[in-house]
Amino acid sequence: MYLYDEIDQALVDERVVQFRDQVSRRMSGELSEDEFKPLRLMNGVYLQLHAYMLRVAIPYGTLSSEQMRKLAWIARKYDRGYGHFTTRQNLQYNWPKLEDLPDILAELASVQMHALQTSGNCIRNVTADQYAGVAADEVADPRVYAEIIRQWSTLHPEFSFLPRKFKIAVTGSQNDRAAVKVHDIGLIVKRNPAGELGFEVIVGGGLGRTPFVGPTIREFLPERHLLSYLEAVLRVYNMLGRRDNMYKARIKIQVHETGAAEFTRLVEAEWDQIRDSAVDLPAGEKERIASYFVPPRYEISADAADVLARHKREDAGFARWVDTNVFAHKAEGYAIANISLKPIGGVPGDATAEQMEAVAALADRFSFSEIRITHEQNLVLPHVRKDNLYALWQTLKSYDLDTPNLGRVSDMIACPGMDYCSLANARSIPVAQAISKRFADLDRQHDIGELKLKISGCINACGHHHAGHIGILGVDRKGEEYYQITLGGSGAEDASIGEIVGPALAYDAVVDAVETLVDKYLAIRTEGERFLDTYRRVGKDPFKEALYGAA
Amino acid sequence: MALLKDRQVVTDTWTHVADDAEVPSDAPAIVSIARWRDLRDALGGRNAPIGVRLAAGDGPDAVLDDLDRLDLIAIPFDYFKDGRGYSTVRLLRERYGFTGELRAVGNVLRDQIAFMERCGFDSLEYAGGTEASRALSAFDDVSVVYQTAADRRASAASLRNHPSKAFSNGTSG
After folding, report:
1. What CA–CA distance (Å, rounded) separates A389 from A401?
2. H or E element that contains A279
3. CA-to-CA distance for A154 and A447, rounded, in angstroms?
4. Is the minimum CB–CB distance between A283 and chain B shorter than 8 Å?
């Protein structure tokens, strides 16, 4: 993991002092809420329906056990004993008090964490593949580049007042687990025919009101030019992106209205001016940062795989968890263990302080003290010896963290919705809970196979419904909650935007509708087809007919 | 309004001249870009310093042909969220080599001034609610910079990799 040096530490410490002064000016009345707003937003503090909300950055979803313990401690001391892991690999506290926020930020700084740029019209906390550095299918570790981007984007003097927020995601694998095609900038690390490292650069993807799969504007950018190219994209956006209407201010609208070819030309022309300037990193810095991401010293255990196989034979429940939640690791004898934060009937992404501490302790025992957060709101222990998986699973069971549902219908993304959010039109969490309970039978979930269900409580699409195989969007109709169903979306390497299947449904009809869609799929699928594959083969009509009857 | 320059509150020797007012011939004057276009030849030849105030959203193109005739370019920040001026000033300073005074005008607030200095502004017409002399501390709120910009401060990356430029902000202990 990356560790701060005195320079990184000085920045977060100084920001705490600065924010403490701002909060005291607010508390004394010197600053009005209007004047305070842009200042608090720069530190991740929102005003929600019931209280302030603090969004803590977990850069590229990588966390140490010490940091996780601190998050648990803060949840207990300053909040109501839990936190919410988000689709941007961050953690939100829903109930902090304004006067406690400077102390919370100081606690975070003490473990090399912060809440910088988790809100506001700036470059937000950068996200990455949660399996970075350990996935067998990876070209190179995207965390190195994500950390480079984190530093470059922190308090960037030119790009802190953009037309709108700006999200960058990086993956080192062709199997896209970071949804890079639906980000403002998506980077895919790849090698050119000469074997050199670089990036495919995708710009202008996004969800929200106007969803787009982003176009590739450069097939291969040599890695040494990363920052100058990003700077060129950001400058073209900062100067020419729309500022007249906040709903048209994201870069995806600019790319769409300008046209990808012309937008690319503008970026390349700008880049030509700065490509060999001091914007890019000096020699040695990439290597310095990369040195923090060298793999841990894996132990060779000759019989780890045999031990795992025996445990699987002896315990069917364990075997199911392994088959569903455990992913291939690049090191012999090791595995990547996913910890679901989607227990049946639970709140997607929530974790209690006790659960956070349990995961921290397990990371210390089994995973070189390292934890990852996924954009699908789950946790990962990235380096578990195969013969330790059984002991890991047994402990997870006692904390209700053993649900074997990764990628299944109950592994939903859901935004906080009207239970917390001041923008929401409808509730998301109770819908997610009801669907989860309807599909509580895990045998049935496993028969259904991979099914990405995503729920947003308003058109801003924080629950990524456009990218769901089944998407659910809450809308307000004359004061009543209705839900629009979309089908066929994907946020992965085969990215697509879901299509609306028919008229919106009442709250009470949503769970039945999901079940109807799933039953239809089961009836017409062919061998090996996922829900998404079947949908893409047969199209919308059979599903529409199942839901609404024949036209 | 107070003028900030070199991290101090200073007396302003320039005057903003409204479009319907007479341009003083013997004192530094800032006119709108529209008026500059009308009177370019008359104003460009005068003896006293002349400055131009860009309109919101104007990029460097608006004055590229005039850089050697202008002593000051004022870039507007009409509302907090409008960040176009941060790009405009960097380009004028770094790419087009403007050597006159670059000034931020409009609604310039405490929490922007450190960014503005980094992007190449020489002077800031401060309009914040906090008293100007107290707002100056904003320049020192954060001692670390991660990027190269118009102020040419050494970035964290360059300090780390060129140890001869000692890291001396006093916070390393």
Report:
1. 14
2. none
3. 46
4. yes
Angle among Cα A173, A456, A91 to the nearest 5 degrees reads 60
Whether the CB of A105 is below 8 Å from some CB of chain B: the reply is no
Q: Cα distance from B159 to chain A (closest Cα, Å)?
A: 9
Rg (CA), chain B: 17
Chain A residues in contact with B129 (beta carbon < 8 A): 30-31, 35
The DSSP element (H or E) to which A203 belongs, if any, is strand A197-203
B86 touches chain A (CB under 8 A): yes
* b (16+ CB within 10 A) / e for A440-471: eebeebeebbebbbbbbbbbbbbbbbbbbbbb
Say how far apart CA A458 and CA A430 lie, in whole Å. 14
Q: What is the pLDDT of residues A326-371, one digit of tens each?
A: 999 999 999 999 999 999 999 999 999 999 999 999 999 999 999 9
3-state secondary structure of A169: strand
Q: Is A410 helix (H, G, I), strand (E, B) or coil?
A: coil
Helix and strand counts by DSSP (H, E) for chain B = 5, 8
Prediction pTM value: 0.95
Q: Which of B61, B64, B81 to mutate to test the interface with A (most CBs of A within 10 A)?
A: B81
Give the CA-trace dihedral at A350, A356, A362, A364, to 10 degrees.
Answer: 140
A402 torsion bin: left (phi>0), alpha (psi -120 to 50), beta (else):
alpha
**Do residues A60 and A128 touch, judged by C-beta distance below 8 A?**
yes
DSSP characters over B103-154: EEEEEE-GGGHHHHHHHT-SEEEE--SS-HHHHGGGGGS-----S--TT-PP
The closest alpha carbon to A351, from A53, A55, A75, belongs to A75
pLDDT digits (tens, 9 = 90+) for A77-131: 999 999 999 999 999 999 999 999 999 999 999 999 999 999 999 999 999 999 9
Q: Exposed e or buried b for every residue in B86-108, given b needs 16+ CB within 10 A? A: bbbbbbbbbeeebebbbbbbbbb
3 state SS of A306? helix
DSSP state of B95: I
- As for the ipTM of the complex, it is 0.93
Dihedrals phi, psi of A405, to nearest 5 degrees: -130, 20
Count residue pairs from A and B with Cβ separation < 8 A: 115
Question: What's the burial of B57, exposed, middle or buried (CB within 10 Å: 0-12/13-18/19+)?
Answer: middle
A224 touches chain B (CB under 8 A): no
| Of B13, B99, B137, B127, residue with least CA distance to A14 | B137
For residue B146, list chain A residues with Cβ-Cβ distance below 8 A: 11, 151-152, 154-156
